[in-house]
Amino acid sequence: VLEHRPDVRRLMLESLRETRPRETREIDELAASYYAEQPGNAPRAEEIYHRLMLGEPHEEIAALFLGGVEDYLGGAIEELPAPEKAFLAEKLGVELPPDAKAGATQQVWERTAIRRIEEALEAEEPEAALKVLAERKERTAQTMLRAHEVIALTAAEKFDEAARAATAALEAYGSEGNLLGVFETLLASAEASRRRDADLDSLGKLAGIQDSLAKLAGAEDIARATRDPMHMLRVVIAQALSRATDDKKAALVRTAAKIDDDVFRESPVLLRLAGALSLDRQLMARAIRVTGLPRLRYRQQETLRHYLDLPLDEERIAGLVEKPPANSAQYVLSFVADILRNDTYAEPPREEEAGRGATVEVQDHELTEQMLKLDLHPDKLRRIFASIGYSIDSLAFETTSEGVTRAIVTRMREDRQLATLIDLLRKNARRHPDFLRFADRLGLGISVEELRGDSLSRKFVETLMDERRSELATIESRICRLERDDHVVGTGFLVGPELVLACVETAPATVRFDSGEKDRSLYGSGTLAGVIGMTLLGHNADSRPSLLRLDRPVALEPVRGDADGQPRGHFDLNGPAVKEGQPLIWLWYEHGLRIGGTAQVIRPDDRQMGFPVRPRDTFAGAPVFNLDLELVGLHCGEHRRLKRECIARPMAMIAEILDQQRAR
Predict the structure, then answer these.
(1) Buried b vs exposed e over 381-399: b needs ≥16 C-beta within 10 Å?
(2) Do residues 235 and 216 lie in contact, with contact meaning Cβ atoms separated by under 8 Å?
(3) What phi-psi label fits residue 237: left (phi over 0), alpha (psi between -120 and 50 degrees) or beta?
(4) The pTM is what?
(5) Contact (CB, 8 A) for 62 and 54
(6) pLDDT tens figures, 237-248
């Protein structure tokens, strides 16, 4: 079969149109008339192609785009003149060719820009959306680009610019009588006002809410005029996000009842939000049945299993919402509402403090039971959390200690703040040794040891762990034990995505992370990785550091494979220098992970530092930290000449050796 190569076809067509313009125009006119009489998508695509070649008005050609015709036009873009290229690319939903951007009409460019902005915002890249807007300064009132500009500026937290863009958009849309443009801009501007003042004090926040509601009142008038229930639902959702009063919750239920399920299947976020904000059992159950649930996180599954046996399908969860247990109905509704809202509404992500994302393995009911033993009144709990700026005022519907405690555990787990919760409770449980023992085995599989020699005391190290527990949880996740034939042969720690720093002469077969002692930690078997290479660092045979290469970038993986977790990360080699007499600590694997330290470092220089404590073979490869938990060295075990001392290599020396090797 002979086929006309597209590149050759384009060259021939360009030549014909340049040398014989009258004849080619007559061919396009005859072809357009012929295909206009033929039924089917393929003839319609041919008619569109030839009319574009003739340069006919785009508004007339747009009416020819019936469902399925796009499939036949993908290869035609490159053959068209620049303005027609831009028009067809916009209709097909593809990127504008570079030579077509400048020649695109303003409306075609705006419609294409809207699609690109939506893609950037969906990917949570507001700066990319702003780059699209910067391509042209001109704006018309015929597309929704002006409203999208307000949305993009709000997402980038440029609230003053968003306000100015909204003012210009409302004036432009109003003068053109574009009610839909006014409506979309009012919604976008109201959201900007709500977001702008969300972090202010109560008076500032109230001003932002009032400003937002005033704009939404105008959007509500337009929604009533259009008699479109989807427009009205969007307004009521925005109003409820600003102030979720009982009348707004009732309005959500009434408005959603006017909209068919098929319409909501096209806009599932609106139905989920309506259910979540209204806390109406029937509406929430409808949202679950009609739109489904996003993939449940592990902790969400665990909580639902407290009320339901497997399988956790949508019908069973909807049934639980409709008929929750009498003694915890409000809790169940709030929990499912959080799933519906937080997995569908794009609130700005909150940055986690370093180490606060550390995962703690404990069942919710067990932690709740232990917290109740502390006998903390709900008001006391609120004051405790207020000390770290974490509000639990939204749990005001819970009046009993059990209800508040259970809701706190669920909320903190979903916010990945359980390590913080344990820290707070430990500080308020000094008179409750049972709780302290319970907390000791959560999150940190680390045993404190008081070493022989000039050692830090057990009490000193335990106090340090109490005060820096969250940071130690992050440090712990980056330390691994080295294994050969199922035996521990040393310790190592991550210094790159797939690089482990250790102090061994022979490469281990595997390394294992997240593996504390079974009687002190609920970590389980840990995270295993293979070793595929080893490099000895430096030339001194006395205590040579070694660099292990793993079979995958473990540092980029979340702790214990938690799908919702943050990457475990790796240590920075640019640690501070150590001074004579400075106390230091190190963590090493023996039966489990241990922590201990020296009260003073001796003879530190740029090549080594000494510790006057009784050495152990298992110290080799341990990361060494100052009391600010900054990595300062690599423990290399026993000093070869001074038998009652240990030796460590400064991180500056390790970094220098690695730089020299890279230079080679």
Answers:
(1) bbebbeeeebebeebeebe
(2) yes
(3) alpha
(4) 0.46
(5) no
(6) 988 888 878 899
